[in-house]
């Protein structure tokens, strides 16, 4: 039965494509119909007999039965009952329309503003004073915290510290990692906004990595104690020779491999790829360079003028103009975000992983098919999702929290890190009610469309709010005070 349906399904698809090629039917199609469905004309939905082989069809062409039948029982392609799902042409049409409409916008932008792309100007985003490099210095200083965490773990591994003292030292170290760069970014005048974002981001990543480093080493110690208690501490020979076991992992080489590896979750034995594929690596590096240029160009040419023009409506609280500006900003912002996603999660992380022969390349899943905001957040940034799940969510569940509280906790922690690193693409706290609304009222394709709308509209709202606040704090305050 299954076979029969499959055969008739593929036959129907083949006929459909042939119809489109031949302009809607003709003698050959009619002959096919006569052979495929001899009963359709009489009984309508009678079972379809096994189709005749192609060879017979060819010999019947021109035999005089050609114009007998040109209709059969079938649904229109757009009906869901037709089982037709090949919309590749429509997808191509969407892409062509997108390119054409954006080409018009691009031309309009060029005519209005001229060429604004200036690679030299980018340097000033990172550097205010050529003799002062606070952001790179901050990143170099971060090594001290990594080494501190390593030394604490070393002492704990030989029982030179009690677990409580170790925990206290780790907490102090991790708290400093959060506070120190924020204080520097606020107090040092020569640091630029872009420089401080990058430095704070590096520190946030280091915090998450060292948190994981501490957790995993603690789990290893707990296991060692359990194994000792069960007096089965001997690890089987074959496995022990190939893999590193605690405390042999406590080396600088292992720590720095983890710090540079494209993951936030520590493991004693990461899966490793067998070799570095040079062509793959070269492609990723070329993509990294190309997309960096493209993003910078699009931001300078397209985003900056729109943002600058949005400040006045925001100041005057002119709502209709604010909405118009938001919608105008939505297109370039979304395009840049998509490029950013590919650049970071595919090009950069794969390039680093290839260089380090890091085997786990699941940096993202199919978030573009998300039918809920929660699914999107679980799948667009897998390193962060894995960390949240392994070091925050599951431990909370194990301690007896219910799922809703644990999820909200994860979102709040995530929001905190987004704010700490001023990574202004999202306003995460607002996502909790948003996730609820989308999940409650939109399902299936509507849910997917709702997720896209929140991505396309939500981000420019956040960008404009952050830029507005920065503008008011840094450029408006002295004037209003005067
Ligand atoms: C909160 C979050 C971690 C939840 O993840 P999730 O996969 O939906 O969680 P689930 O409830 O389905 O459970 C996941 C795991 O918990 C385990 N689990 C469930 N109850 C458990 C319990 N009582 N004890 C221990 N583990 C439990 C499940 O077995 C499952 O394990 P598996 O992943 O190994 O299969 C996820 O939504 C998330 O990562 N959110 C934040 C993402 C984010 O901020 N991203 C920012 C990117 S910039």
UniProtKB/TrEMBL annotation:
Q: In which pathway does it act?
A: Lipid metabolism; glycerolipid metabolism
What does UniProt give as GO cellular component? endoplasmic reticulum membrane
Chief location of this protein within or outside the cell: endoplasmic reticulum
**How does this chain assemble?**
Homodimer or homotetramer; both forms have similar enzymatic activities.
Q: Where is this region: Disordered?
A: 1-61
What family is this protein classified in?
Belongs to the membrane-bound acyltransferase family. Sterol o-acyltransferase subfamily.
Q: How does it sit in the membrane?
A: Multi-pass membrane protein
What is the name of the protein in this document? Answer: O-acyltransferase
Keyword terms of this UniProt record: Acyltransferase, Endoplasmic reticulum, Membrane, Transferase, Transmembrane, Transmembrane helix
The reaction(s) annotated as catalysed by this protein in its Swiss-Prot or TrEMBL entry are:
all-trans-retinol + an acyl-CoA = an all-trans-retinyl ester + CoA; hexadecane-1,2-diol + hexadecanoyl-CoA = 2-hydroxyhexadecyl hexadecanoate + CoA; 1-O-(9Z-octadecenyl)-glycerol + (9Z)-octadecenoyl-CoA = 1-O-(9Z-octadecyl)-3-(9Z-octadecenoyl)-glycerol + CoA; hexadecane-1,2-diol + 2 hexadecanoyl-CoA = 1,2-O,O-dihexadecanoyl-1,2-hexadecanediol + 2 CoA
Xref: InterPro entries: Diacylglycerol_acylTrfase1, MBOAT_fam, Oat_ACAT_DAG_ARE
GO MF terms here are: diacylglycerol O-acyltransferase activity; retinol O-fatty-acyltransferase activity
GO aspect biological process, one term: triglyceride biosynthetic process
Could you list the residue ranges that cross the membrane?
A: 90-111, 131-153, 165-188, 194-213, 285-304, 335-356, 404-429, 449-467
Active site as annotated:
418
The subcellular localization recorded is:
Endoplasmic reticulum membrane
